[in-house]
Amino acid sequence: MTTKPALAAVDDDAAPLSNQQLRELYTLMAAVRHLDTSAVAWQRQGIIPGYAPELGQEAAQVGSGYAVDRSRDFVFPTYREMGVARAMGLDMVGYMSTHKATWHGGMYNPVESRFAPIQAVVAGSVLHAVGWAHGQTLAAPDEGTGVAMTYFGDGASSQGDVHEAMNFAAVMKAPVVFFIQNNGWAISVPTERQVAGGSVAARAAGYGIPALQVDGNDVVAVYEATRSAFAHCRNGNGPVVIEAMTYRRGPHSTADDPGRYRTLEEERLDAGEDPLERFKQRLLADGVADEAFFADAQRKAEEEAEVIRMGIQDLGPRPGAEMFNLVFQEPTPALQSQATAWREESEHV
Amino acid sequence: MTTKPALAAVDDDAAPLSNQQLRELYTLMAAVRHLDTSAVAWQRQGIIPGYAPELGQEAAQVGSGYAVDRSRDFVFPTYREMGVARAMGLDMVGYMSTHKATWHGGMYNPVESRFAPIQAVVAGSVLHAVGWAHGQTLAAPDEGTGVAMTYFGDGASSQGDVHEAMNFAAVMKAPVVFFIQNNGWAISVPTERQVAGGSVAARAAGYGIPALQVDGNDVVAVYEATRSAFAHCRNGNGPVVIEAMTYRRGPHSTADDPGRYRTLEEERLDAGEDPLERFKQRLLADGVADEAFFADAQRKAEEEAEVIRMGIQDLGPRPGAEMFNLVFQEPTPALQSQATAWREESEHV
Amino acid sequence: MSETITEMPPVIPAAAGIQQLSMQQALNRALDEVLAQNPKTVIFGEDCGRLGGVFRITDGLQAKHGEDRVFDTPLAESGILGMSVGLAMAGFHPIPEVQFDGFAYPAINQIVCQIARMNYRSRGTLPMPITLRVPSFGGIRAPEHHGESLEALFAHVPGLKVVSPSNPHDAYHLLKYAATRPDPVIFMEPKSRYWQKGPVDLTPAAADTTAPDGGNLTGARVAREGRHLTLVAWGAMVSRCLQVAELAAEDGIDIEVLDLRWLKPIDAEALARSVAKTRRAVVVHEAPLTSGLGAEVAQLITQGCFDTLKAPVERVTGFDVPYPSGDLEDEYIPNIDRILFGIQRVLEYRRG
Amino acid sequence: MSETITEMPPVIPAAAGIQQLSMQQALNRALDEVLAQNPKTVIFGEDCGRLGGVFRITDGLQAKHGEDRVFDTPLAESGILGMSVGLAMAGFHPIPEVQFDGFAYPAINQIVCQIARMNYRSRGTLPMPITLRVPSFGGIRAPEHHGESLEALFAHVPGLKVVSPSNPHDAYHLLKYAATRPDPVIFMEPKSRYWQKGPVDLTPAAADTTAPDGGNLTGARVAREGRHLTLVAWGAMVSRCLQVAELAAEDGIDIEVLDLRWLKPIDAEALARSVAKTRRAVVVHEAPLTSGLGAEVAQLITQGCFDTLKAPVERVTGFDVPYPSGDLEDEYIPNIDRILFGIQRVLEYRRG
Ligand SMILES: Cc1ncc(C[n+]2csc(CCOP(=O)(O)OP(=O)(O)O)c2C)c(N)n1
Ligand SMILES: Cc1ncc(C[n+]2csc(CCOP(=O)(O)OP(=O)(O)O)c2C)c(N)n1
Ligand SMILES: [Mg+2]
Ligand SMILES: [Mg+2]
Known about the structure:
Chain A is an alpha/beta fold.
């Protein structure tokens, strides 16, 4: 699998990643890996009711999230973009609170973090990215505009909204990066029975959109593809499709039982090399990092996860009044009287 | 524009159209042309409240409809497939009754005529074709199965349902012909601001579906492309996309005023040669038909339209009881009591 | 009696600011002014730009305000509404149009799961100031899916507000009001009333929620006062109810007509106020009966006036059948006879 | 008192055909039998085949009946429902599944404009025997859009029938009944009840519309008899109402619980019969209040029992807010306290 450079502005001048950045990428991936496996454990321990692991997708998520310019871009995640969130520096207790069942969209501030509320509708926010991106064109057509990056899966690619979004984006030349993580599965359905033609990237040509299919387990390749796509979009050349080929190594969610639809042997064969281990070997081989660095990264990851665990455990339920207060900007009398009734009957005040 | 033969089974052995068939095609086109212009006149005369002309699309409609095997295929039209209906031998009073506002789906029998009820939702029935076609596979996987042909426009191609349909059809290898009439316009929006990438046929590759882009004003080319597509589908090779490039010479509907979005000069330039006149010249040049034949075709068309006009004028409103009786196969008591109330209050029985 | 006069809000003085406008003109003018006032307002949809909309509600706006502000989209309703969410997140106030009521269905997922919830999901950080215009209801002998009434669906969705004007004056003021709100509003335009003229007082509203005639923009409106029975309606049914009231007056029956206007939130106080006086009510709508908004209205009235209500609230509505073709339209939409029968049932109701 | 017993249809004899099954098992068994009986039945949806559905309702059916009869589709709800229309036109009886309630929205256009209308549009020549299974309602602390109640929307759509079982016995019989009808039925499964066991009489129904226990499958069901007040509910709220009735009984209040079962058409006679006796009613549902099905139920009761009703019908429902996250779920769904408050309001109601 190779990245086919098909973009108008490939950001060729961009400097290659410094050793410092490569190490930062590794640190991020290690943090994400550890937080992800911790979250699964927390679910088993009853700390959170459910979780959607991204095990195996760390390179795709960290590599792409690392390319985001948080001063002007905006990211539209699904329910599985924990690694992107972490790479973008989100408040991870706020992020994980969605899995604690505290608040559906998460408790982080999406405006400040440039990371839209967690989206549970498959393909639900792909069109939002197009609208947001077109808004950037309308607001500042000539400057290097902000770029929207919308994440979705191989399964999501079947939704009509994805087609409408790609067509709208291409017609309007909206600065959108459609970032597909093709992780081989949509719950129990493998990509070959989901994506006719076999590749989501191949769809792009039909809209005149350039596409990059990239090894989603190679964090540097993902980062570079994303950076190029951003440059392309920022320069007014319209949308780009990136399909990062990766593998969902874990269950769909903590409620899922992959044993019903794939064998361990299949998993082992199809998953390929572990993206974290692979990156580690590369950094070692290139002399960018040593074992002490990796040990340190692991220790930091563990400390971080521990802080997040404590934060999550401290999270109380939201006050019930928020159910009513956060529906509208301008509350309605009808809703206010429901809030009053609720308070009287449920809080017994 | 050429038909790119990209099909697994191109029906190469099929005999070329006989002169008799060519004349029949012309007769059909002439009948359609005359009925179409008559219907516009009837609307002006107050005989029917509205109509969606297909002026300029006679070749695309007659050529494709002529390829349907009415013993096993099934057609899913939009609101503009009068020419297909006529080519398939529908009861045209039953067909036109939809424009008389008699009954939304038309008064013909869709099961017997192999022509689904008229569909007013843009792209509304594209998925039905896929389901129907998959039903043929399930019922008789190994025989030459019935094929579904679904019609839609350049505008409709933007709908999410079209994407879902193409993907489903390709995943299931359903025998579906997606027949697009790209007539340059979706009401006031030209194809170039509608179809990113410029061609609906180009979308097919992304699903691994073979596509034919064909001169939609050449009735023979359309017929041959459709026949090939049917052969491909019938032999178990999955769906085909045909994009017939044509032009909507008239208004979108009798309520539309094209002067608001295109000049007469643009219309003249973009419409190209009239498909009926063009076919006539070809038949003349090839010695397949003479002026007497054309005069006769015209006379027959006029007689036919006159009979249809009388049929339409004779159509009374449907009995109001049908509103209630035709909702369910098994009526509900609640609805029956509404029917009773209606009868008492509105028919004063 | 002419419809125009029947429809006038009571006692509008012949002020300088009053013009005779059709609802189409009033809506067009409201959009023009909203575009001029708020540079973040954008209008778009199928055929909204160059053509000015199939009903010409956006006529001339693209030429005047530019192609960035008023534009055509590809033909995809989910796309239009989904894009609206993103534009709202980027700080715009989108005023999308769905070409006809029945074509809102492809966008329901975006409307219900996204537009109505993004403010909530984002804990108030991403408001959705989206004003969705939907030419609505029947009565124009149109093709299938062009005569639908979706108010019950919209009103049930938490996070949406829903309004429908019945005359040009309200159309102008309610649209200006809705299009400046920070929350999503579904604006249901009674398409059969687009071409009826009526007086519109164009004097700018004093306060946000007050129309120049002194009426409040957020509640229901008494379209005609009466003592014997309250007819509750919205959209095109208001003028029909006013006609019915005229007819009933000839028989000495004095009917109050309440134009509900806001279908979410519903002005329950106005309902109770009116029916407390008349003690009888009939609610009229075009949508099918079962689970229609008439049930909500009836139940609100019953709750508010249980003690004094003389008869169960009647509902005169469309039937539980798909909206029929033109030839049967008049059988489906509540007609004068059926409304009179409903009134009669209420007036003649005797306990036991 | 154990829930299983509370939920039993009254007086089921310990016959040979009675088994203790969870609702999940009962539904699975019903589908298995329907597949065996009608070769034209096909089951499909997201993860329905190999996995057997995320709730395992179709567990084992693909292995037993083959990949042609039970299959996975790509991830697109409009596609699934649109495909169902075509299969029905081709003579099949599709039983599609939408994975969760909230993901029915992307398919609403196909459900409302196509499935519900094709029989009508085609003048009865193209029936739509489609049984759409929708795991519904809340109560399982799931992610967003996994706890929605769409019955008001579905019930408003002409051409659809809507049913929701509250216990394993009814789940088995109602699904077998629905899946053999020539009309489209939306089958709303209360997902929070999937794993509760209860007795199911598997004896084949004598006639089409009659369950072996002699109850009729087409109407409502008296889940508990009582004299002082009627609680009307469906789905998961039925067992909660039965719990409430137990509690109220301790205070000497004898409550009748009516399991509505069919949400379209609604059994108005059963409502009137019950409330004619009790003269007081509270309707309970999870969906938001405004324009919810509770309004329709309340209005039907008021129409049927206006003379004898002692208090306006109360509605204890979800609030007009988006379904909240797990932590606030119990605040949103009608809980025992809120239902008791509603009952109290009705019992204490005094005129004037
Ligand atoms: C519209 C919609 N339909 C169904 C679901 C249920 N669902 C949640 S995730 C999922 C599979 C998604 O697969 P994919 O897009 O490949 O993403 P992945 O889970 O692999 O990250 C499904 C069916 C949903 N959330 N939204
Ligand atoms: C879902 C939906 N949206 C909007 C409309 C209104 N409408 C009817 S025809 C049309 C244009 C269709 O264009 P195209 O698909 O190119 O077909 P053509 O009319 O050119 O034959 C529109 C917008 C509709 N009928 N259905
Ligand atoms: Mg996936
Ligand atoms: Mg067109």
